[in-house]
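Board notes (copied after class):
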Amino acid sequence: MNWPTLRGSPPDIIAHRGASGLMPEHTLAGYALALSQGADIIEPDLVPSRDGVLFARHEPGLARSTDIAMCPEFSNRLRDGDWQSIDLDADEIDTLRALQPFPGRSADQDRRHAIPRFEHILRWAGQAAAERGAPVLLYPEIKHPSRLAALGHDPVPRFIESVSRLPTGVEVWVQCFEPEPLRQVFEATGLPCCLLLDADSDWQAAIERHGGWLFSLGVSKRLLSGDDGQSRDPPSRGVVALAHRAGLRVDVWTFRDDAIAPGFASIADELIAAMRLGVDGLFCDFPKTGLAARARAGLCSG
């Protein structure tokens, strides 16, 4: 099948925070499960500790996805109802354990897994690449770099340093919602960079201003949808078409088995509709579901 992606290859299934539908998000076990299921890309989010070590968490706030509220030794670090990663040193974050933050998902793995440092993720990816005889592609997102930099905890220099020597078999692409820190990473490392865009973003302006150095756009799936929830992307003006015309990938977030978009009978229908628009990657909390939908889409079109 000739897929309508930028390169004509099947779209990538990106394990969003690992196999986060089944495991607590951002754990080495969750990343390993996603890879074993066949995910093409593993996505860590990165936040800094007080002493500048990068950890995989969706946000600097730790209450949502760790057991810090159960640890009395950190009660005096509570600020505005949460504990911030930048208020704990790395060895303190090492003592925390991951929780499943989504209601309705299994909590069986709660408190069984550590919060991984980015250096540990890189090491794990190198070992996994050697064991399977194929590269492992990581797609980290640098979270809130400008706000954190203003607080004296800029994650960008730490990230640049961390990817200066990658383990054999490990590839890295980089995501961020902020173009200036992302451009800084690109100029320092040359790594493929993805500008993330919310549903209300001016994606046409983003392509015009940044398309010359970007590798991809990471867009909300709502940018593909009409008011009725049905996917659309007119060939002359849709985000996928114009990004491809500029030579950019389009990676779309986020597909969840337990949060199907309006207008679709099943998550498979939602995924296949996006694939038929030519998206190049799909961020999935349940990567196995994305892989099954890709196989079905290929069979249906064959």
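Comment from the instructor: The two ends are 6 Å apart (CA to CA). The chain has ten helices and twelve strands.
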